[in-house]
Amino acid sequence: MPIYEFGCPSCGGITTELCKIGDNGEQLRCEECGNTGLIKHISGFSSLGICGGAGSGSCSPGCSGNCAGCH
Known about the structure:
By secondary structure, the chain is mostly beta strands. Helices cover 0% and strands 18% of the residues. It has one domain.
């Protein structure tokens, strides 16, 4: 199951929940104010690139591991 962020329309608090893809937040309760009916937010994700992994892909010598210096 993926982790989603839900926002409270009452106080603006953000709650992170592990839930099914189809869950929309209507049954969730805000951790800050107790309001029900949270709104699902679109969140970003991160992934290890070639420089962050153990591979020897197309990184420049001296890559620091975050790919900012080699791409």
